[in-house]
Specification:
alpha/beta; Rossmann fold; 2 domains; 6-stranded parallel beta sheet; 3-stranded parallel beta sheet; 16% strand; globular; binds guanine
């Protein structure tokens, strides 16, 4: 079994991006600028946004964090989105999710100029991705594809089972895995909470991408000998063994599955670090005005 070291690959990519930014700036170009809107004080969102801001620094980007209290109205937030759409210094921006219940996330996402939508959540980017046009691909699916590429994992003609059908991970990663590209060209099955014979379907898979958000769901009896396992799960499970009081737990029962598979992503240190790096790559693309 080989461990897929997302942390190491992410560090490598950040270095590559920083070198490219240095080159751009040296040649008189503009420093890429990412803005992030954070509404409220959700612990998880605070952590994610802090990591994104830190990664911007490592890549040589400019970053701006814009904070609002959670009583901001939808109208005020939409105004801020419009302001960022029209700010020529901001190449790309994100609105950290989830938003308070009184705000429509979909309305906010659709208000973002798709050319600045570095999260890749706007329907134009989702649609362009599904027909293989240049676009911002959402961060987690893009990170998974990059890991498969950098580890030279053959996906062509392979049977790939995606567990989970979320708009952010399951659906887009299934689309990318079936795309005419490398990695890609896989035969994809998407399983979800209503799927029958889920265990049997997994058992025949050459590649399993687990994105259910259900801790340790994938057990050894569901995995074919030599399969490739990508674990997207990051559930905070209470633990008395850590300082924070929780342990980040994947969708795969790592200890028993690791013995059976050819490659596996650990949690933490697998897909997670790649997600932030994908956002950095999208920001670089936005800075270079690659999406039109
Ligand atoms: N909340 C959890 N993941 C994400 C993400 O990738 N982007 C945004 N904007 N919010 C999130």
């Amino acid at each position: 079994m080989q461990l897929i070291d997302g942390k190491a690959i992410a560090a490598e990519i950040k270095k590559e991006i920083a070198q490219e930014v240095e080159e751009i700036v040296k040649n008189g170009g503009k420093t890429p600028h990412l803005a992030a809107i954070l509404v409220g004080h959700d612990g998880g969102s605070e952590t994610y946004v802090a990591h994104k801001v830190k990664a911007c620094g490592e890549c040589g980007f400019k970053s701006t964090l814009i904070r609002f209290e959670d009583d901001i109205t939808e109208e005020q937030l939409l105004k801020e989105v419009e302001r960022l759409n029209n700010d020529d210094d901001v190449d790309g921006f994100i609105v950290q999710l989830p938003l308070p219940k009184h705000i429509s996330e979909q309305r906010v996402i659709e208000a973002i100029d798709y050319k600045k939508d570095v999260d890749g959540f706007h329907p134009i980017n989702v649609g362009r991705m599904s027909i293989g046009l240049p676009c911002f691909v959402s961060a987690t699916p893009a990170g998974i594809m990059e890991l498969l590429k950098r580890y030279n994992i053959n996906t062509q003609g392979k049977s790939c089972v995606v567990l989970g059908r979320s708009n952010i991970v399951g659906k887009p990663v299934a689309t990318l895995m079936m795309q005419k590209s490398n990695p890609g060209n896989a035969t994809v099955t998407v399983c979800h909470s209503r799927s029958e014979n889920l265990k049997e379907i997994c058992k025949n898979a050459d590649i399993i991408i687990a994105a259910l958000g259900s801790p340790e769901f994938v057990t050894a009896d569901m995995v074919k000998e030599g399969a490739v396992i990508v674990d997207v799960g990051t559930t905070r499970v209470p633990s008395d063994k850590t300082k924070s009081g929780f342990k980040l737990t994947g969708d795969v029962k790592f200890d028993e599955v690791a013995d059976k598979c050819s490659y596996i992503t650990p949690v933490p240190g697998g897909v997670g670090p790649m997600t932030i790096v994908s956002l950095m790559r999208n920001t670089l693309l936005a800075g270079k005005k690659c999406i039109y």
